[in-house]
Amino acid sequence: MNIWRAVLTAWLAMAAAAAAAEPLIVIRRFEPEANLCRAGRAEQVVAVIENVTEAELTLQAILTLPQGVKELPPSGSGFTVLAGEQRTIHWRMQADSECNGELALEVLRDGKVAARSALRICFLPLLERFKVDNIPPPEPVQTEILVGAHHCPLWEADKPGMWSNVLKHPERTPALGFYAQENPEVSDWETKWAVEHGVSFFIYCWYRTAQGAPVQMRFSSAIHDALFKSRFVDSIKYTIMWENQSRGSAGVADEQDLFENLMPFWLENYFKHPSYLKLDNKPVLFVYRPEYLIQDLGSKEAVRGAFDRMRQVCREAGFNGLTILGEYRGVNPAHLGLLKDLGVDATFAYCWGIPGSPTPEQAIAKQMEYIRRTQELNVLPQVITVSQAWSGWRDEGSIWKIPPNGFELLLRQAKAFSETLPEGALGRRMLLLDNWNEWGEGHYLAPYREYGFGYLDAVRRVFAPDAGPHVDLLPEDIGFGPYDTAIRSSLQEIEQARVSARRLVTKPGFEATGLLAWWAFDEAHEATEVFDYSGHRRGGKLIKASRVAGMDSSALVCTGGCARIESCAAFSVTNGVTVSCWVKTSVAGQDQAWIVNRVQGGGESTGFRLGVMGGKPCFNVPLTAWSHTAHSSKPLPPGRWVHLAGTFDGQTIRVYMDGEECGLMERPGPMGINNFPIFLGSYVADHTAHFSGLLDEVQLYNRALSLKEIRILSDNR
Hints:
The protein folds into three domains: about 100 residues, Immunoglobulins (Immunoglobulin-like, Sandwich); about 350 residues, TIM Barrel; about 210 residues, Jelly Rolls, CATH 2.60.120. The chain is built from 14 helices and 39 strands. Strands 10, 11, 12, 13, 14, 15, 16, 17, 18 and 21 form a ten-stranded mixed sheet that branches. Strands 24, 27, 28, 30, 35, 36, 37 and 39 form an eight-stranded antiparallel sheet that branches.
């Protein structure tokens, strides 16, 4: 038994080491220039290839095109890339007819594959470009049942970071590109594409910024700046889903807040709007977390009474009441019973969480199982939701996707099931689609690069089978767009800053054995780059942070901002790590204040982090979710520079302060690896769990330094 355990441990260690092996090159970008390709047009493909070694490399690029696509003209593929530099390569391709398949790139060194990237793309049918003055009006199709789609309104021009997961998945690129949703023409296109495929209403996520005061909103531009100013606002219905999950800010402070602030705002801005969805003259309101209102209002009875009073307020405003739906994505009868006790009219799922990264067939079967089980429990009426995919914002947990043909099968099964519900039931009158445009989280139906209009065409075939042929227009077909100029510009600035941060710099001591990176913050005070002084080019950027005079030259000021260091394979150490730094603070008793962090949601059992808890330094190397934090026996002294270090040697976590060991914890086994960035000065960018003070001379090693080595670092003032 012990032999097999030893073998397994060794194998896991080798697998982790292989996963963490430093690459020779990185393919930074590989995709068509067009958001969505069309047959008959010459489309350009771009690749950005980066040499992350310290030597010049001679490479070869091999492009593989989908069947039915040709290169225009065939190009040479040999090139050289200097140490730490990038090379951009372009190709041109063209499809003669509608098709789809895999576009792939292999980069070879000495005849062997050094890097590979691939994505699935489609070419829409042939269509000659033509110029018009206005976007052609929508041509809605008739459906037997109301079909709604959840709408994610996170895509504003000043929030380019929202697209970070799409940058890793260029096949997800929307037909509108990385659009700014506040543009009314974006709403024009969304409405046109929706109603022409049988989607008759959107359910916009609605966010409140604070409670207990007149309403202020986040991410409201999709409704107020785009939909309300759209030429086609009368062509589609909309409703809101109250995103009240952020307790203390997104709900209500009390009943007075609900009826003096929230309800009047909803009535005047939404419920009375001619395009707001009303059934039987009742506005339809979706609530993301009805159960959270128990804390807001004090009891289940208070929530039920508030819902009844909300219905009465709507009657007094000229409606026949208010239909309230509560979100739940499970089949626990107790939770369904709770929603019933709260007084919601029906339950719905924003999405279906399916564990185990299922196959498309399994994802279809599991959703139908949830739907049937909810009905069999007979606790609360349901409005059926069908989900297309899931990845999470960082590709964490269960990841799955149903392609368009499988999604059509799911739609047919869900529609057939809805027809078995009681006559007049809300679930027989409407069906919900998850999601129109949740690009970062990995579930979306709007037209995009991988499958074009495939998902929407499936909706049209199922719910409007007699609609006949149609033509799907793109903005560029008629001389409109682009809608992503602002965000593309911001992303380009971010990339330029990343490249700039990879400059080769060193300080005395950079040749220390196992030194992976050294962030000293010694750049010019106004610089946004953070260089790596170990000579490994593992720099990063400042986010809402600044520098002042430090222990040695300059230091990072930690007041909520941070330095973000891009992930690299070398950071995924498994059997040994040391984090060393200098800190100075005037704030005693800090708690959950993270100084160097690579443990995040979605990777709670991976990585490492150094911080302060209960006023004492700590070092965390989790084995299970958030586990194994070694705490110092002494508090962090305020008012002077203090050297902190945390080490892990595959068996024991140790904490050091000013060269003395002050805490330890047994933690056998290798560390779990992840692909997260490292954040210096905070848990993540712009987070409340940040260190307050100054941070200087952060060093990261791929081994556990000895006490003697720690003392040398702490004496090096």
